[in-house]
Amino acid sequence: MTRSRLTVRQWAGWVGLALVLLLTIGLAVWRGDILRAGLDPQVPFQTYEPPPAPDYAAASGWALSETRAPGAGPAAIFFVHSTTYDGGREWNGPIGDGKADAYLNRVVLPNYAGPFARTGAISAPRYRQGSLYTRLTLREDAREARMFAYGDVARAFDVWIARHPTGPIVLAGVEQGGEAVERLIREKVAPNPGLSRRLIAAYMTDVVVAADGLAAQVPACTSREQTGCVVAYSPVSDGNDGAASRRLRRALVWDERGHLVELRDQTALCVNPVTGSQTTAAVPARAHRGATNATGLEWGARPALIAREFSTQCRRGLLRHSEPRLESFQETGNWADRRKARHYNMFYGDIEEDVEARLAVWLADRKR
Length: 368
Hints:
Helix content is 36%, strand content 14%. It is α/β, with parallel strands linked by helices. The chain has one domain (38-367). The strands form 3 sheets. A 6-stranded mixed sheet has the order 1-3-2-4-5-6, sandwiched between helices. The longest helix has 37 residues, at 2-38. The N and C termini lie far apart (104 Å). Residues 26-32 have low confidence and may be disordered.
């Protein structure tokens, strides 16, 4: 009898252990799907009521508003930030979400708006951004949420450009911010000869752009002596061919009607930020001007740059780069944070030098 009860207990223990192991394996395999599902608003976008719109006449509508660093140049910079809102209840992030704002101020602005600080006055609108979930699915609801976010950016641009009726301008955006900047270039800048002549360059970081669709209106940059052109790139490490294929396969780009469609057989645009050109030649690390991890740095403080860190090459429309070696350039954060723009900028020094060089060319041309 005792032996029988002991056998049953042992059997139950083994079954319990097996269930725990299966559960652990299942969580490891499907963890991403589980977390992704938790960000799904579970409501069709057509019946969704977005959060209240930002007021661009008020300070609350801007993360940065005409912010100047000491000794900054004469340009006006319009910067559109990347995804900072994870999602869950909302397709589009509400203005003033504490967690999203903290990520914006701690990670995005110092790393990605920082390279433009020496060029002029920076303005960065808050907008009802597409949630992180909208970047993880090709569903039509997600596309509509991303298109809706552009409406806020376009209104902010109109307010901003009215404050800058003359002088050189720069447009810059990261990830979905870069997506918005591309459409601004297509719809607001390219059709307006006056604005086109004032454009130093447009910078679209960590975003796939269809080369043919944009080049018909604004050229890609071919050298640092060129102005009125586009620097766009989507970085993927050299050893990660799977990620490169997924990036292109899942990329959504603007069509001529202002809709987001799959890239499919279109060619992605790659302008190497190290050379400021479309060269497809391999660029050695010795040409790299400086990466930095500026996360947590107070706005206005220029970070230390680490040069000669990344070799680069434009291949198949993506910017392939060598693997980061330093610990400060390794992935950190939770599952959601690792799917946002990196918490460091691989090409901070390169972009900083690029925009300053183009501004100098633009100013010299106006003196002739």
